[in-house]
Amino acid sequence: MPMYTYTCSKCKKTFSEFSTVEGRNRPKKCECGGTAKRDLQKEFSEMSQFNATMKENVRYSDALGVNPDQIPEFKRRWPWMDFTPDGRCIIRNREEKKRIMRARGFVELE
Prior knowledge:
Blueprint: E1 3-8, E2 14-18, E3 28-29, E4 35-38, H1 40-56, E5 59-61, H2 71-77, E6 89-91, H3 94-104
Antiparallel strand pairs: 1-2, 1-4, 3-4, 5-6
């Protein structure tokens, strides 16, 4: 069941609660006795913060990595590819991962 964010019209308290999809827009009771309506603005701001965090997280791939002695050779052939000092491949996003896999000769399954 999804979780939705609600804000009370009486005390302005914000809280999250599980609800069915059908009941997500129905007013909820707050602890103070007031009614709380779904707060879409708060939900979207939380979602954008989560997405920004996911975009900033760099990932490292051992499978696409190389022996540390081979890094200069790979940098000459593919200058846009980055590696950690221990040879792990640095992947910043999904598009970059696909680009690296194509360059290295891996085939995408459809």
